[in-house]
Amino acid sequence: MNSYLVCFSPECRTKYPITEPIYECKKCGSLLEAAYDWNAEKTATWKQVWRERRLDNSPLNQSGVWRYREALPFLPDTDHVVTLREGNTPLLSAPHAARYAGLDSLTFKHQGFNPTGSFKDNGMTCGVSQAVRLGKKRVACVSTGNTSASMAAYASAAGLQAIIFLPHGNISFGKLSQALEYGALTLQLEQNFDQILALVRRIAEAADIYLLNSVNPFRIEGQKAIAIEMLDQLDWQVPDWVVMPGGNLGNSSALGKGFLELRNLGLIDRLPRIGVVQAIGSAPFYEYMSSPDGSAFRPVSSPETLATAIRIGDPVSWQKAMSVVRQTEGVVESATEQEIADAKAVIGRAGIGCEPASAATLAGICKLVRKGVITRNAKVVGVLTGNLLKDPDYIYRYHTNTLKTPGGELLQSNFANQPKLVSSNPDELIELLRAL
Ligand code: F0G
User: Fold this and answer.
1) Is 111 close to ligand 1, i.e. is its CB under 6 Å away?
2) Which of helix, strand or coil describes residue 10?
3) Residues with Cβ < 8 Å from 412, sequence gap 6 or more?
4) Sheet holding 15-17, edge to edge
5) Residue pair 241/374 in contact by the 8 Å Cβ criterion
6) Of 164, 211, 162, 161, which Cα lies nearest the Cα of 186?
7) Quick one: which atom of ligand 1 is closest to the CA of 254?
8) Any ligand 1 atom below 6 A from CB of 386
9) What's the CA gap between 226 and 229, in Å, rounded?
10) Taking the model in full, what pTM does it have?
11) pLDDT tens, the chain, 436 aa long
12) Which residue minimizes the CA distance to atom 11 of ligand 1?
């Protein structure tokens, strides 16, 4: 299978060898993507092969990414694969959340079940495997937390040095702790994510680091597997909508690429519509997609949201995400801090739980149902991107009525579940429990 890198810009499309360690087109500066000369005749067997691999105990087939390797055939030698058995994340039906959103049914694809607790593992297994193939010794990323946790784990598993750059004070403690425990060199800067990413992209070559942000096209290849696994789990019945949060917009680009390629290869006959939801204080993509044709894309210079994972004002992949939203007749929505906080508590009450950024998915679905964009009987899959335990501080504040917006405004804890201090006197305890 011939694979190569190609410039994403439709006007340029310059090709590069798959082993060239670059992240942007040398001619026009656009992002790159991995592309393949597919052999279409063979795809007829893929679904069956993928299903059978679930019964196989080899690491490659146990991975919910590499099991689908025919759809991401950029790595000729599987000895280079670094896997922690990522993917394999469940589809969970959530009637409680469906009722809240005004839908007949709602299914979540919960990426928080990954080895480091977020969807980043799907991409990182591919990014780090490519780093091994290229003989790289040091990998690096800028992160709002999850990418760094994931990269730290995969780099250590591969015996590579991990260097991570973080916006000081603006990542959750759970994620920072993961990076430390997995052994990454952790550098905190007094700038926001966008500023640090621009800086690190500038110095990557001189500093001899292999960048594993979502500008890295192999990250996107791995995250494509979220779409493939979802359809495999749905017995290839395409949902009407797939909705997810948007920050740097790598994930929506990746899932979109996955659905488009599956359609082009004849594995599905139609596309789901993609919904991307941004937090209102960090919503340049929402603003752009809602503005009149011909408007320029305007980054948000001081993005704010309590959903720190998506506190991003200048998303690098907005053109890729725009292409996906347009081709799937998708939409972009925004959600307030209050909407995200309540949606998150509702997902918790469904027995599922997620981190704040992930709850933007449900907050956005609610709005799109209210606006009549998503109909009550639509088949909707919401992607939950991160695990509940990523940000326990946020949860505690919500349930104790002390959660404040970045501007200092107290949020309503509409579904608060306060811990209670009680007496240890047995009679008083019995009385309390009987009175419930
Ligand atoms: N949800 C979570 C939990 C995230 O960590 C991120 C991004 C997103 C959604 C948005 O995905 O950027 O592909 O649009 N986190 C990155 C990080 C930026 O550094 O961990 P996106």
Assistant:
1) no
2) coil
3) 338, 342
4) 15-17, 3-7, 32-36
5) yes
6) 164
7) 13
8) yes
9) 5
10) 0.97
11) 799 999 999 999 999 999 999 999 999 999 999 999 987 668 989 999 999 999 999 999 999 999 999 999 999 999 999 999 999 999 999 999 999 999 999 999 999 999 999 999 999 999 999 999 999 999 999 999 999 999 999 999 999 999 999 999 999 999 999 999 999 999 999 999 999 999 999 999 999 999 999 999 999 999 999 999 999 999 999 999 999 999 999 999 999 999 999 999 999 999 999 999 999 999 999 999 999 999 999 999 999 999 999 999 999 999 999 999 999 999 999 999 999 999 999 999 999 999 999 999 999 999 999 999 999 999 999 999 999 999 999 999 999 999 999 999 999 999 999 999 999 999 999 999 999 9
12) 247
Token readout for 327 is 């081709």
**What does the buried/exposed string (b/e) look like for 254-272 if buried means 16 or more CB atoms within 10 Å of the residue's CB?**
bbbbbbbbbbebebbeebb
Phi-psi region of 107 (alpha: psi -120 to 50; beta: other; left: phi over 0): beta
Question: What kind and span of H or E run contains 380?
Answer: strand 380-384
Instruction: Report how far ligand 1's centroid is from the alpha carbon of 310 (Å).
Output: 6
Could you tell me which residues come within 8 angstroms of residue 325 by beta carbon, excluding any fewer than 6 positions away?
Answer: 252, 256, 274, 276, 289, 331, 332
Number of H-type helices and E-type strands within the chain? 15, 13
Is 32 in contact with 16 (CB distance < 8 Å)? Answer: yes
Residue type for 287, please? E
E-strand ranges in 222-342 read 241-245, 273-279, 331-335
Are residues 91 and 107 in contact, defined by beta-carbon separation less than 8 angstroms? yes
Cα 49 to Cα 69: distance, rounded to the nearest angstrom: 11
The CB of 250 under 6 Å from ligand 1? The reply is yes
Tokens at 50, concatenated: 């993928």
